[in-house]
Amino acid sequence: FPGRPAPVYPPTPPSCLLAAGETAQVVQEVLSARELPPALTAFRTAFRARGALAVLQHFDPLYSLLHHFQAVGADVKEDALELMMRVVSHHSNELPAILGDSGLSRTDRTAHLNALKMNCYLLTGLVDAFEMETCKSGLLEVGPGGKKNRTKTSGSLWEEEREPLLRLLTQLLQLDLHKLWGGSVVEEEFVSLMTGSCYRILENSSIGLQKYRATREAVTHLLATALVHYDHMFSATLKITQMLQHFEHVAPVFAQAVSLWATEYGLKSLVGELLREIGQKCPQDLTRDASGIKGYATFITELAEQIPALVLSNMSVLLRHLDGESYMMRNAVLVAMAEVLVQVLNGDQLEEAARGTRDQFLNMLQAHVCDINGFVRSRVLQLFTRIVQCKALPLTQFQSVVSLAVGRLRDKSVVVAKNAIQLLAAFLSNNPFSSKVILTSMLAMLDVCLQAEYPQLAIGRAAAFLSPVITPEEEWEAMLPEVRSATQQLFQPQQEGEEEVLEVEETAEILLTNKCSCCAGSYPGENSEDPPHGNSSCKTKEVVPEEQSQTELVKQEMLVQYLQDAYNFSVKITEALSLISKMMYENCVSVVQEAIEFFVTVSQFGVPQALVGIRRMLPLIWSREPGIKEAVLNAYRRLYLSPSGDSERARAQGLVHSLSLIMVDASLGTIQCLEEIISEFVQKDEIKPAVIQLLWERFTEKSQCSSLERRAAVMLLGMMARGKPEIIGSNLDVLVTVGLSEKVCEDYRLAQEVCNAITKLAGKPKSALGNNNTPFRLPQNHMLFGCLSKTVSKGFDQPSGHWIPFMESAVMLIYQLAEGAEEICAHILQECSQQALEKLQEADGSLPTFLLTHLVSLVGQVALQQVAHLEVSVSAELHRRRILREEEKTKNTGNETTMEEELGLVGATADDTEAELIRNICEKELLDGKHLFSAFVPLVLKICNNPGLYSDSALSAAAALTLGKLCMISSEFCDSHLRLLFTMMEKSTLPGVRSNLIIAAGDLAIRFPNLVEPWTSHLYARLRDPCPSVRQTAGLVMTHLILKDMVKVKGQVSEMAALLIDPEEAIMGVAQNFFSELSNKGNAIYNLLPDIISRLSDPDCGVEEESFHIIMRHLFSYITKDKQTESLVEKLCQRFRTARTERQYRDLSHCLTLLPLSERGLHKLQDNFDCFADKLQDPAVYSCFQAVLVRFRRAGGKPENKTLAEELEQKLFASHNRGLESAETCQEGSRTPMPEPAKQKPTGGSRRQPLSTANRDDDFVTPQPRTFRNQKRAQKRPPPKKAVITFSSDEENSSEDELSAELTEEETPTKTTPITRSSARRLR
C-alpha cells in the first residue's frame, strides 16, 4: 500500500488489520457507528475528485463499516454497497486504458494495484457480511406455521444486488491484471479473495431455488474465469471437495457448474481431479460421515447424467467404493455406470474395447442386484429399468437380467419387489422379440424351425456337402414355407389399426440376414436371378457351395438361437405372472399398485395368462385402501373403457365385446366385483349412451349376437342399473315381454339374468331404515309377477338343469318387489304341487326324480325368502310406519314429552315389540298345520332320513338344503332336527350334501347361535373332509363364523391352521385369508398360538414335522409387537416342562427360531433356562437355540447384551455336552434301556386321518393324544386321583365316546356352551 517499498496484499480477516505490522496495511483509526455517515460522504466526494484511487486515503472509514456492520443501520449499509460497486465499476472501466499504457510509471502501477486490492477487499467484505446477515435472517424470520414473514429489508435488497455484483467482479477478472503485477503471476491471495465470495454465496442453502438461477450462473462464470486465467484449479478442487462434504445442497450446483466448465471452457481435467479426490476418500471414514457421503453421491450422480463420457474416462478411480460399506456411494457409482451405458456405451457400432467395458459394467450391475442392502438392490433394478427403456441392454444379457428380476420378486424388501415388477413391465414393453409374447406360439415356431433346420445341423457341415442331390438353394426352397408361417405368426399384429408389418418374404430374409450380419457371402433368395452355377472352373464349383453352406448353417443357427431366446423370455414372463398375481394381496399398497399396473401391461401384449391376473385383481375393488381401489378402477378403465375404433358405434362394440369375454365362465364373486366396478363407471358417467343402446339391441335381438352375448348384455345392463336404476326402470316392460316370453323354456339362464337385473330396482333394506320414504313395490297384478308365475309353473314339469337357479331368482324377485308376495308364491306352490300330484296319479305311485327335486327346491326357497321377508322387509315397514305415527303425534301434541321418552325407552320398547311379533309368526304360524309349509315338511324329512331309498345326488342335495332352510324358520323345529342335520353332514357319502349342510349350519349358527353352539366341533371336523370342495366350503363358513364372533375359538382353530398346507391352492388361500383377517382383530393370533402349537405338535394330530414348520412360519409372521414376542418366548420355554415327546421338543425349539429375539427376550431365555436345559441333548433342539443366538448377534446391540449372549451360549454348550455324556454313561453302565424317542412312533399312520366316507364314528372326532399303553392301563384300573400336567389344547379334545357320530337321543348335546369340552384326563 502507499508508503511501503513493496505492495503487500492485506490479510482477509478485518481484525488482522488492527494489528501492527511492518509490511502490511494498518488501520490507523476505527470510527464509531455515528461517525460513519459523514466519513462515507467524504469518501464519495473524494471518489468524484480522484476516482478509484480515493480509497488510498479513505480505507479506514470503510473498514470501520465492516467492523461495526451489525450495529450500522440498513441505509448506511446500502449506501456503502452502492458506493463500492460504483468505485469498482469505475476502476474496471479505467484499467484497460491504464494496462495498455506502455509508459505507465512504477508508482502509478503500484497505486492502481493497491487501490484494486483495497477496493476488492472492501467489496468482497461487504459481500460476506451481507451474505451472513441474509443467512441469519432466513433462520430467524420464520413465523408461526413455518411461513416466512419478510418485508422489504436489506436482505431482499442484497438478493437483488448480488447478481450484478458478481457480474462486475467477473468483468474485472476478465481484464489482463497480470500487468499490474509486472507481468508475473497474480497473487493467490487476491484470487482466493475474489473466489471466496462465490463460495460463501453457495453456502446459502436457498441458492438451489429456481429464482436464484441467474445468481448461480454468475457464480459459475466468475469461478470459470478464475480457473482459466488465474490458475485456480488446485484450490477449486480442494474447496469443492470440502463443500460437498459439509453442504449437501451444493452437490447439484457444483455438478452443473463442473459440467459447464468442462464443455464450454475446456476444463476437462477438473473432472478427473474432483473424481480422483473423491475416489481417494477412505470408505471407512465416509461411513462415519453421513452428510459427506450424501454430498459426494449426489455430485457423482448428477455429473454422470450431464457429462457421462468424461465420467467414463475416470470411472476406475471410483470403483473402490463399490466394496465400501456406504450404500449411498455404491448407488452413486452404479448410477454413473448406468448413465454411461445409456448415453455412451449404447448401440451396435461399438468397438471391441467399448463392448468389453459395457459388459463389465453390466456384470457389476447384475452382481449388485443381490446386494446386501435393500436400497442398493432397489436402485439397481431401477437402473436396469432405465437401461431397458432406452434399449441399451444387449440381447445376450436379456435372459440373465430377466431371471434376476424374477428372483427379486421374492425379496423381503417391498421396495425391491416393487421395482422388480417395474423392470419386468419395462422388459415387456421393450422386448425385441415380438409385439406379442405368447408361450405356445413361440414353442410352436421353435419346433417348426428345429424340425426344418436342425437335421442339417446335427448331420454336420461335412455331411451337408456330400449329397450331390440336395443343394443349399433346394433346401432353402423346401424350408421357406415353414419359415414363412413361423415369421408370419411371430410378426402378426395384435389389433387392427397397428402398423403393418413387412411382407413375409421380406421379413424372413431380413430376419435371417440381420441376425447373421457377421457372416460373409450373399444369400440366395426365393427369386434370385443369379444362377447357382456359372462357367467357372471345377475348383470354383466345389468351393462356392461349401461357402454358401457354411453361411447357410450359421444363419440357421442364428435364427434358431433367436427363437430360443424368445421362447426362454416367454417362459420367464410366464413364471413371473404367477408370482406377481400372488403379490396383489400384499400389505404394501405400492406393491399392489405395481402388480396391477404390470397385469395391465401384460394384457396389452396379448399374453393369455394375463386374464387370470385381470380377474384376480377384481376383489381388490373392495379394498379399504383408496389407492388400491383407484388402481383397480384405472386398470379396468384403461383395459375396457378405451377401445379402439373410428366411430362411437365401433368403440361401443369393442367395449361390450371385451366386457362380455371376462364374464365367460366367471364365478359369482367375479361378477359381483365387476358389478361394483361398472356401477362406479356409470355413476361417473364414463359409460357412453351408445354402449347402453347397443346392450338393449343385443338383448332384443335387433343386433345379431349369440346366446352367450345376449345373456352378457342383460348382466351388464343389471350391473349398470346398480349405479343408475332408471336404466332398467325405464325399460321394464321390454325386459318382461322379451326376457320372460314364451321362449323362456329355451334359455332359463337368460330369464334368470333378467330377474337379477330387475332386482336392482329394489333398494337396499338397510339403507331404507334411515328414511321414511315408501319402499318401491309393484302391485300384485303387475304383468311381471304374472309372467314369473306362469314361467315357473310351466317349467316345473320339464327336466332342465337350469330351472332351479331361475326359480330361486324369480322367487327372490317376487318377495323383493311385489305387494303380497306370500300370496303369489303360495299360488305358485299350489300349482306346482298340483302338477306333481297329477304326475303321481298318471305314473301309478311313482314320480320322476327331477320333479321331486324341483318341488323340494321350490319349498325351500319360498320358506327362506318368507323368513327374510318378515325379518327385513316387514320389520322395516313396521318401523317406518311407527316413526310416521310418532312424528304425526308429535306435531299434534307439541313438545310435551314423558319420562320414558326422555330416557329413550319408547323406541326401544317398540322395536322389541315388533321383533317379538315377527318371532311369534315364525315360531308359531309358519310351520303349524294351517300353513302351506307344513304339508311339505314330512316329505323333506322322509327324503333326508332315507338316503338309501332316495339315492339321487341332486335330490339328496336339494332335500338337505331345504331342511336347513326350514330350520331357519323356527328355533323349535331347528332344535328338534339338528341331530338329523349333523348326522347327514357327517355320514353322507355325497359331497354336495355335506357342502350344502355346512352352509346351512353356518346360517343357523348366526340365527340360532345357542342351539348350534354344542355342535361346533362337528363343523370343525369338516375341515378334514376328504373332498376338497367340502373342505373349501367348511373353511369359508368357519372363516365367516369366527370373524363375526359367532363361534368361540380356542385350540380347535388348529384345524384352520392345518389348511395352510392343504394340497389344493384354493383351500390354502382360504386359510391364508382367514389368518390375515384374524390378525386385524387385536391379539387374536397371539392368544391362539400356544394352543395351536400344542395341537399340531402332538404326534397323534397327523401333521408332519416339515408341514408344522410351514404352518408356524406363516403364523409367526403376524407376531410383530415386542411385548408379544417376549411373552411368547416365556410361554414356549414353559411348554418344555409339559412336552412329552422329542417331536414336541423339536417343534417348540423351532418356534423359538421364528421369533425376532430382543434384549428382553434374551433375558427371558436366560430366566427360563431350567425349563429346557435337559432337552438340549437333542442335536436338533440344540441347533435351534444356537440359531436363535446367531440371529440375536447379527441384529447387533449393546456390549452387555453380547456378554449375556455369550454366557447363555456357554450354558447351552455345557448342558448339551452334559446330556450327551450322561446318556452315554447310562447306556454303558446299565442294562436298562433308554426310553424310546417319540420319533419312532409312526406319524403317517396316526389315528387322526383325513375323513373317509365310511361310517366309522372315530373318524369324525378328535381322539385324545394318549398313548396306547395309557389306554390299556385306564381299562384295567380306575384312574388315580392325582394332578397331572395337561396342554390347554388337550382341554378342548373330547373323548371318543362323547362324540360318537351315532348321535342317539341320550347323546345329543344339551349344554349351551360346550365348544371346549372337558377331557376325561381332567378328572384324574
UniProtKB/TrEMBL annotation:
Residues in Condensin complex subunit 1 N-terminal domain copies: 76-236
Highest taxon in the source lineage: Eukaryota
Record localization: Chromosome; Cytoplasm; Nucleus
Residue intervals of the Condensin complex subunit 1 C-terminal domain: 993-1152
InterPro entries recorded: ARM-like, ARM-type_fold, CND1/NCAPD3, Cnd1_C, Condensin_cplx_su1, Condensin_cplx_su1_N
Alphabetical keyword list: Cell cycle, Cell division, Chromosome, Cytoplasm, DNA condensation, Mitosis, Nucleus, Phosphoprotein
Residues covered by region (Disordered): 525-544, 1216-1324
SUPFAM superfamilies recorded: ARM repeat (SSF48371)
Comp. bias (Basic residues): 1269-1280
Entry's Gene Ontology cellular component terms: condensed chromosome, centromeric region; condensin complex; cytoplasm; nucleus
Signal peptide: none
Acidic residues biased stretches: 1289-1307
Biological-process GO terms, alphabetical: cell division; meiotic chromosome condensation; mitotic chromosome condensation
Function: Regulatory subunit of the condensin complex, a complex required for conversion of interphase chromatin into mitotic-like condense chromosomes. The condensin complex probably introduces positive supercoils into relaxed DNA in the presence of type I topoisomerases and converts nicked DNA into positive knotted forms in the presence of type II topoisomerases.
Protein family (similarity comment): Belongs to the CND1 (condensin subunit 1) family.
Protein name: Condensin complex subunit 1
The organism's taxonomic lineage, starting at the top: Eukaryota, Metazoa, Chordata, Craniata, Vertebrata
